[in-house]
Specification:
The protein is an all-alpha fold. The protein has a domain at 28-73. The chain contains 4 helices and no strands.
């Protein structure tokens, strides 16, 4: 079976899916606070930047996050 060339939009979609799969268990395991004033600190305590998590992530994902592509759709 021949290899498939992955286009930029497919990489973006794959990156988003991987991100959701990585963060979903973390977010589900810590309940969202009922008090709206605590939501920002809750979010910042859970979601870490790529620089902070870089050594635990797939190197291809880290590279994709350091050189993002902006795709404008009209």
């Amino acid at each position: 079976m021949a290899g498939k060339i992955i286009k930029g939009s497919e990489v973006y979609v794959a990156t988003m899916c991987v991100s959701i799969l990585l963060f979903a268990p973390i977010i589900v395991s810590k309940l969202i606070p009922a008090d709206k004033s605590q939501v920002n600190s809750w979010f910042n305590g859970i979601i870490k930047s790529v620089k902070e998590r870089g050594n635990t992530l797939n190197p291809e994902l880290v590279e994709a996050e350091t050189k993002p592509r902006i795709i404008k759709v009209m």
